[in-house]
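wait is this the right file?? whatever heres the structure
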């Protein structure tokens, strides 16, 4: 009895992965730390997204997927299915309310709002004798403080 095209493709991909140094494993006996590169066959994706032909792990971390296809170009349905799987995996972390709230808080913390509608206007520009006297008084006050506290001030 001849093998199905998917089975032939899987055997060919297994050979290529093994030749490239990957440890190809079945899901029921998977150990993602067995080698630097581990490929797990028939890996289940998030509910409603089916299975990936191979899930790739590098140093114990998910690194990619391989979808065994037919010879030639993928059909529109293949492209649609692959896109749905990838979208499902990409948005999965965003289903976590704690992560969403953390992202919102971080954005609020670092966000700067620039108001282009109510612009500040310069009321006056120029030399001010009063401001000069105030600045001189502050400098003199600081000099006096340093002289009065010279013995208590230490330098680096």
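ok assuming it is, sequence goes like this
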């Amino acid at each position: 009895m001849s093998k199905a095209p998917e089975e032939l493709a899987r055997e060919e991909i297994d050979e290529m992965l093994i030749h490239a140094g990957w440890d190809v494993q079945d899901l029921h006996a998977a150990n993602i730390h067995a080698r630097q590169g581990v490929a797990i066959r028939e890996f289940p994706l998030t509910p409603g997204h089916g299975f990936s032909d191979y899930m790739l792990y590098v140093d114990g971390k998910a690194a990619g997927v391989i979808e065994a296809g037919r010879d030639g170009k993928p059909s529109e349905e293949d492209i649609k299915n692959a896109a749905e799987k990838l979208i499902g995996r990409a948005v999965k972390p965003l289903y976590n309310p704690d992560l969403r709230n953390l992202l919102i808080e971080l954005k609020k913390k670092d966000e700067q709002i620039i108001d282009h509608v109510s612009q500040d206007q310069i009321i006056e520009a120029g030399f001010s004798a009063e401001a000069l006297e105030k600045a001189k008084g502050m400098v003199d006050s600081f000099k006096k403080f340093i002289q009065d506290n010279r013995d208590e001030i230490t330098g680096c």
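Residues 5-97 form one domain. so i think its the right one actually
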